[in-house]
Each structure stands twice: as C-alpha cells, then as structure tokens.
Amino acid sequence: MSDNTILDVKKLSTHFFTENGVVKAVNDVSFSVSEGQTVCIVGESGCGKSVTAMSIMRLIEDPPGKIVDGEILFQDKDLIHASKKDLRRLRGNDISMIFQEPMSSLNPVLTIGEQITEPLFEHRLLTKKQAKQEAIKLIELVGIGRSNEIFHSYPHQLSGGMLQRIMIAIALSCDPLLLIADEPTTALDVTIQAQILELLKEIKEERNMSMLLITHDLGVVAEVADYVVVMYAGKVIEQGSVLDIFKDPKHPYTQGLLQSKPVLNQRKKRLYSIPGQVPNLIDLKPSCYFYDRCEHRMSICGGSIPEKMEVDDNHQVACWLYEKEEVRT
Amino acid sequence: MDQKEPLVEVKNLKKHYKDSSRSLFKRNQSVVKAVDNVSFTIEEGETFGLVGESGSGKSTIGRSILRLTDITDGEILYKGKSVHQLSKQELREHRKSFQFVFQDPFSSLNPRIRIGDAIGEALLDHGLATKKEIREKVLEVLNLCGLAPYHIDRFPHEFSGGQRQRIGIARAIIMDPEFIVADEPVSGLDVSIQAQIINLFSDLQEKKQLTYLFISHDLSVVEHIATRVGVLYLGTLMELGSRDEIYENPLHPYTKSLLSAIPIPDPTVKRERIVLQGDVPNPANPPTGCKFHTRCPFAREKCKTIVPEFKEVEANHFVACHLV
Ligand SMILES: Nc1ncnc2c1ncn2[C@@H]1O[C@H](COP(=O)(O)OP(=O)(O)OP(=O)(O)O)[C@@H](O)[C@H]1O
Ligand SMILES: Nc1ncnc2c1ncn2[C@@H]1O[C@H](COP(=O)(O)OP(=O)(O)OP(=O)(O)O)[C@@H](O)[C@H]1O
Ligand code: SF4
Ligand code: SF4
Ligand SMILES: [Mg+2]
Ligand SMILES: [Mg+2]
C-alpha cells in the first residue's frame, strides 16, 4: 500500500445466508485504489464484482447478506464500523456510485432536475437557484445539449445513453474523490459506450478522481484501467498493472479469458474455449475453485486453496503453478 | 459469378409499426419504419451476419423471414417461393426447414416441462416420430450440443445460461432444419461460455450443412462467424459485403465508426477513434436524406436532402453513401 492510497480493501468476505446455504459471494478479497488511479474489477457473471462494490458502499442488505470478515479503509477511515451518519455523509460526498441498472436507480416520478439537485441540497447546502444552475452545468458537463429541457423531463423520456450520463452527472455532483461505476456501459450500444468511456476518462483526469470500474468486458478494461483485479468465484485470482494482465497473464483463468474473446481483426479458425462452468458458490470445495476447468491442474490443486503470491512488483496470482517446488509437493 | 439460386432472397422488404409512444399532450400517429426497403440474399451454406445498433431493425428482419410477423411491403423468397404467400398447409411444411434461436432461451422454456420434452415437443407436434424415436433423437441432439444424457429429465431452472442456450440450439436442430435465424444467441453470455457456443454453431454448420442468419450487435463476434455481413442503421442497409471487405475495407462512415468504437483488449494498441456524437435518432421521425447525416462526421449539404443510392462499388460490395 502506497502513501496515496485512498481505498484499501483487506481480506473482505461478504456472505449471503440463504435457505439453500451460505453463498460466499466475496471471499477474502484484498486490493487498493490510489489517488487518481483507475482500478478495474473484471470477471464473469456471479463472481462477486457487484457485491464487492456494494460492500464498499455498505449497501449490502442484511439479512440475507453480511460482511463477515475484513476491513475497508477509505482515507484511513474504517467503513465497516462507521456510523450510519458518517456513512451517509461519505456516500455522495466523497464516494459516489453508478449502479448496474440506471433505470432502476432513478425515480420514475421525479424529474431529472429534481434528482440531480437533491444531493446538492443535502450535501452542499445550496439554495434552490444555485442548485439549478449547478445541475444545468452538470448536465452540460456530461455532454447533453438542451440542458434546460432535460432538467424538466422524466427518466422515461430519455434514451439509455442519456440516462447513463444523468447517472454520471448525479454521481459527480458532489465532486467525489472516488467514483465506483458498476458496468456503466454494459447495456449500451458500442457507439454510446465509446462516448461514455471518453467522458469518464476526461472527467477523471480533470478532477484527479479515483475510479473503481466494474466490467466483464476485457476490451473496456484494456482501454481505461491502470490496474486490474481479476475475480473468479468470489476470489481475486490475479491482480496487476494493465500491462501485466494483458501482456503477461499468469493465472490459467486469466489466460483462458483473454484467449476466448474474439478480437477484431485477429481472426482464428476456432475460438479457444474454457470447458465447463463456474462452480456453485454454495458448496465450494477446499480446492482451487478453477480446478474442474483447468488444463494445468496438479494433485495439490484438488486438495488446497492457493493463496495469492507476488510474482512480480504489484503483480499477484493465486495459483499453485507459481509456488516453489518444495511447498507444492 | 455464382449462378446458383440463393436460399433466401429478401427483396425491398418494408415493415412499419404504428408508433406506440405517445406524450401526454398529443397522440402521435406516426409510423416507425422498422425495416425500410431492405434487400439482400443468403446463399446456401453461408452465415450471413446482420449488425447494427439497438432498434436498427435486425430482429424484425429475422422475424419477417421466418414469417413470425407480417410484412408491410416487399417479398421474401425461400428457395424461390414467396414465404408470405404460402398457404397454412404449405407454411406448416415449410416451418420444419427453418428454425429460430433466441437471445434468452429461458423465456421460451416452460419451467414445468422437462428439457427432454421441451426439445422433442416440435417433433411430437408435427407427428413426425413415435415417442421412442423422439427420445432417441433428443439424446442425439443433446450430445451434439454438448449436453449430457441425464439432462433429459431436468427442469429449465437447473441449467446455467450457457446450457440453456445449448438447449435452445438443440430445440432448433432436432427438426433437421436447413436454415437457422439466430438472434443475438450469445449476447447475454460470459466470454468463456460465449466461445463454447460460437464453436458449437460452427461445428453444427459443418456437420449439418446449415445456413445461418446470425444477428448480433457485437461486431467482433460477427467477424469470427460470418461469411457476409450487412450493416443496418435505422431500418436501412448502409453497407453489404463479404466479411473481408467489411472488416478490412469498410467504406461507409457508419461501418467505420462502429468498428472503431469496439474496445480492443490490448492496452498497447492506441487507435484513431471516430466518436459519433449524439444518439440514434427517433425511428418514428428519421432524418431526411441520408439517415446517418445527423451523426456523420463527413456529412455534406446534399446528405441532408438526397437519399444516397445503395450502389455496388466493387464486386458484391454495396454502399449507400454520397462520398463513395
Ligand atoms: N441478495 C442475495 N442473496 C443471495 N445471493 C446473492 C445475493 N446477491 C448476490 N448474491 C450472489 O452473490 C454472487 C455474486 O454476485 P454479484 O452480483 O456480485 O456478481 P457479479 O460479479 O456482479 O455478476 P454480474 O456480472 O452478473 O453482475 C452470485 O452468486 C449471486 O447469486
Ligand atoms: N411490435 C412492435 N411494435 C412497435 N414497434 C416495434 C415493434 N417491434 C419493433 N418495433 C420497433 O421497430 C424498430 C426495430 O426494432 P427491432 O427489434 O427489429 O430492432 P433490433 O435491431 O433487433 O434491436 P435490438 O438490438 O435492441 O434487439 C425499433 O424502433 C422498435 O422500437
Ligand atoms: S491452482 Fe492448479 S487448478 Fe488452480 S489455476 Fe493453478 S494450476 Fe489450475
Ligand atoms: S451520405 Fe453523407 S451523411 Fe450519409 S454517410 Fe455518406 S457522407 Fe455521411
Ligand atoms: Mg454485477
Ligand atoms: Mg433485436
């Protein structure tokens, strides 16, 4: 952890206690984000990306969910033991989040203007007139013309791309230090995705904001990330700089993911495909969770869970292949 | 060049919907031209990729070809026969040879019907086989689609997304079709599963000499699987050509910008990107002239008023743009 670390997640575990058993959605996850840095969490559906983000925001519904272990430090403040009041002040002020489904996080019966100005009243104590001016500025900042008209319209009157911009405007309204964006472009067409990514990059640079971006799209990761955290079945299986992950991936799963994605202008006769599917998070065995699908599995992999280890500066991997001979056998 | 009759011929297809969106104050009586004068052919054994942004009319074209919807104007020929003129009896016969694979097969599966029965359903409906024969056939297609024999008695909720898509494909191929319309068949899937399903499509095509209309908004997937590609914008084809032409020599500004918008999973590649401004216009009120002119970085004065002709600029490569 460097001096300018803004968010530090240590050994976080978030479980859901359901009728069918305990879902270990986030399982001993550690990573950090420093000032001005963009960290991407990447992984397939159900691997715990959103639950990680919601845990940081302290928005896990309890029951059935519970942070069962670990620490979350934001500028050295302990978020897990923070009071409701402190959390409320932090969220929206210092940390903002853009959720996976924009439509569901906007209120359909309030105008866009009402929804953008709300946090301005609450956190920045602006007057009505000031808030409106600020809202108009924000709408323009996220690249929507006709800001006055948009201010008075309702969510259903806007396209998906516009709604996502509005979500960004709301998230930026209090000038956060950290923006958490959960799949902000997944539901959008590529041309609109390109606009939104461009916008996020610009704003981030202008404000020296940190960003934790969640996505399953390796293309998006390559484009925006400084640092990458790869998750599989609730665990971080590899993390490193964007160059490490794309040019020198170590974990068989990371390698497989990169190989199975069709890439423009790199035609292959046949796509590489990882056999099988992700394990059920309810009955995880005490083995490497990738064991059933791994081409390189060894006997040790079936009997114990590999710990994360440093293979290079800031490049860590959880795989027995990289453990010293004597430990492995 | 090739004098063989195409398997499917879409001629000047138009499909209009009454616009259902209405504001509080005025009732909008306008029509949405979901498909606006589209023509192309699909040759036997090929995979025709249809791409375009959301709302461009891809699904409507697929559904029109299979006669799952009426058409407003134009004609669709399947082996020279006009699909929308067939009698009920002829249509029934016809239905066996073409099938549809949806994006979300789960929504089309009855949660209380076992997978084996769901896959064999159509054979039973058509009275094509005995119960025993059907079971054998179901086992055969399960195997072809990478599912296990014991899956036959399971219920839909017991399957993962990728497996459900395999079930959707098994349901389609059990009829021994010649032609399959696959509408975003890998869109909701994770990359590792997506690769499995794309390979399955390729394998089945080889084994069963299938012809595909493959609909997708993901141009990198289409590049992998298609032999020819059509690029749609607001219900109109902007460009049409062989896969190599479209990907290596795109001529239409819209195709170029679509391609340049796709993020490449390589942080060392820095590309010139054409970032399109604004959203896709309201299809109920499309721009005059070239429909793309409101977002086109190269638009000229005449683009606003004159509709560009869809012309063959190179052999079998068609483009609708004044600049080409
Ligand atoms: N309220 C809940 N109750 C029980 N299980 C839950 C709950 N919320 C999430 N989970 C489980 O936790 C796991 C991780 O879910 P999460 O939403 O974090 O996945 P994700 O990586 O964001 O996936 P996606 O890419 O599909 O959004 C999943 O197995 C999910 O089923
Ligand atoms: N049943 C319907 N009634 C009215 N309008 C419709 C209907 N079906 C489609 N449309 C309209 O026709 C246009 C084309 O829709 P279509 O579903 O064919 O697009 P698409 O290219 O498949 O989009 P997507 O990528 O979102 O699936 C859209 O503007 C859509 O709103
Ligand atoms: S620990 Fe073993 S099974 Fe797991 S990824 Fe490494 S080699 Fe494969
Ligand atoms: S006709 Fe004009 S507006 Fe249309 S694509 Fe060509 S240059 Fe652009
Ligand atoms: Mg999620
Ligand atoms: Mg569609």
Q: State the end-to-end CA separation of chain A.
A: 32 Å
- Helical fraction of chain A equals 25-40%
CATH homologous group name of chain B: P-loop containing nucleotide triphosphate hydrolases
Encode the helix/strand succession of chain A as letters: EEEHEEHEHHHHHEHEHEEHHHEEH
Strand order of the largest sheet of chain A: 6-7-8-3-9-10-12-11
User: At CATH's second level, what is the architecture of chain B?
Assistant: 3-Layer(aba) Sandwich
CA radius of gyration of chain B is 21 Å
Dominant shape of chain A: globular
Summarize the structure.
Chain A has 329 residues and is α/β, with parallel strands linked by helices. Chain A is built from 13 helices and twelve strands. Helix content of chain B is 29%, strand content 22%.
Task: Give the SSE layout.
The complex is a heterodimer of chains A (329) and B (324).
Chain A: E1 5-18, E2 21-34, E3 38-42, H1 49-56, E4 65-74, E5 77-78, H2 84-90, E6 95-98, H3 102-105, H4 112-124, H5 128-141, H6 147-151, H7 160-172, E7 178-182, H8 190-207, E8 210-215, H9 218-224, E9 227-232, E10 235-241, H10 242-247, H11 252-260, H12 299-303, E11 309-312, E12 315-317, H13 325-328
Helix pairs in contact in A: 4-5, 5-7, 7-8
Chain B: E1 8-18, E2 31-42, E3 47-51, H1 58-65, E4 73-78, E5 81-82, H2 88-95, E6 98-101, H3 115-125, H4 131-144, H5 161-173, E7 179-183, H6 191-208, E8 211-215, H7 219-225, E9 228-233, E10 236-242, H8 243-248, H9 253-261, E11 310-314, E12 317-320
Parallel strand pairs in B: 3-8, 3-9, 6-7, 7-8
Antiparallel strand pairs in B: 1-2, 1-4, 4-5, 9-10, 10-12, 11-12
The complex binds adenosine-5'-triphosphate (2 copies), iron/sulfur cluster (SF4) (2 copies) and magnesium ion (MG) (2 copies).
One magnesium ion binds at residues 49-50, 100, 182 of chain A.
